[in-house]
Amino acid sequence: MTSDTTAEPDQQTVETPAGDARITWHAAKRPRRVLALGHGAGGGIEARDLRALAVALPPLGVTVALVEQPWRVAGKKMAPAPKTLDTGWRALWPALEKPGVPVVAGGRSAGARVACRTARELGAHAVLALSFPLHPPGRPERSRAAELLESGVPTLVVQGGNDPFGKPAEYPGPPEGGYELLEVPYGDHGFAVPKRAPLSQDEALRIITEGVAAWLAVPDGTR
């Protein structure tokens, strides 16, 4: 991909039926994609993986839109029901499409679930699922694989090797999988790696940013 210069981040407030949401735009000067990333139920857009992608991708021609759901903007401590999260995301979509380039829906944890559930109806060109919560910790029988498998668009899952919400080996494999899977060795649900691990935190984040950049660069007309 050709290097590009980037503008300073810009914030946009968007009204939704669930309350005001906020988009922080990390814009490429000549974008060929928008990557919209929602946060998880336990944190916001300050998550290490979201921030790393917001820095790494705009110089490569991908505008990154970090989306804060209304409950976070309002300062609430607990995420609402999935239906409410989906409502907020749907209402944001016209703003995400406004740059006029294909939009890749994505997010981490609960945000990844939202992206998968709504991708087909909103016309997302692909889904990036960071730390997809395949099941609650210790409850593999409560699988959420159907949400992932039914996204209806090309999907990349980036998963920590030690994620208690679902390790890479627990994912359904091809041919029924219908998605790509990138493992971050030793990473937990937030992609933190232990100090004793044979790779550093910076190296773990580089696996994410380089892997996502390569996936987005595939010239197949969808990403």
Give a topology summary:
Elements: E1 10-16, E2 19-26, E3 33-38, H1 48-56, E4 62-68, H2 70-73, H3 82-97, E5 103-108, H4 110-122, E6 126-130, H5 145-149, E7 155-160, E8 180-184, H6 201-216
Parallel strand pairs: 3-4, 3-5, 5-6, 6-7, 7-8
Antiparallel strand pairs: 1-2, 2-4
Total of helices: 6
Indicate the structural class: alpha/beta
Q: List segments where confidence is low: pLDDT < 50 over at least 5 consecutive residues.
A: none
Radius of gyration: 16 Å
- Secondary-structure element series: EEEHEHHEHEHEEH
Mean pLDDT: 92
**What percentage of the residues does DSSP assign to strands (E)?**
15-25%
**How much helicity do the residues have?**
25-40%
What form results from the Cα inertia axes?
globular
Strand neighbour order, sheet with most strands: 1-2-4-3-5-6-7-8
What characterizes the major β-sheet?
Answer: 8 strands, mixed
Number of strands: 8
In whole angstroms, how far apart are the ends? 13 Å
